[in-house]
Amino acid sequence: MPKIPDSVYSSFLSALLDGNRKLCSQIIREQVNLNVQIKDLYEQIMKKALYRIGELWEFNKISVATEHLASAIVEAILNELYSIIALNQKSQKKIIVACVENELHQIGVKMVADLFELNGWDAYFLGANTPTEDLISFAKTKKPDVFAISLSLYFHLPKLETMITMIRAEFPDIPILVGGQAFSRGGKDVIEKYANVTYLYDLESIDTYIKHNYDG
After folding, report:
1. Which contiguous run of DSSP H or E holds residue 113?
2. What count of other Cβ atoms lies within 10 Å of the Cβ of residue 110?
3. Which of 59, 100, 113, 186 could form a cystine bridge with 125, CB 3.0-4.6 A?
4. Could you give the CA distance from residue 156 to residue 116 in angstroms, rounded to a whole number?
5. What are phi and psi of 25, to 5 degrees?
6. How far apart are the C-alpha atoms of 57 and 117, rounded to whole Å?
């Protein structure tokens, strides 16, 4: 993964904390024009900045309003970049991407959906707080090749286990990918007891997974 200069990240983080959507968008567009890969922009700039903002909020260094505005700006930039992502040729593979019930942080898993689209998949992004029964009903109509589930808050781990169990009951052979910031606090050992459920810790590992298992 080519390293994006720290100065670019610092400028983006500063603009994000200031709530300057125009400058944030401009910084990302400049990197796109330099042929920096979108997945690297996601991982090294936007995801990194949001993690830092989450830390600042946790330690009462910034307000909830600042944190919410930063999230809204990043999500808007993801939507801007989709016009580039949508140009990729499709492979007929399908993935359903969602957050567990009561999870309201959807930006990270939206990046995952975009990464699959960059690899030519059709990604059905169901977003935050997805009821498990609705996810399963939807999956029966789309017949996905993979599920990807996000967990941001560690105390929602039992809800993730419930979702995995219910998916497995209906789709015993379809791979399930899990990830999210919650796993920085533990939980990987819980996931390991389920067959064909894989924890992937960042976008680079997900990209490697796609190319290793489905390309060619």
Report:
1. helix 107-118
2. 22
3. 113
4. 25
5. -65, -40
6. 32
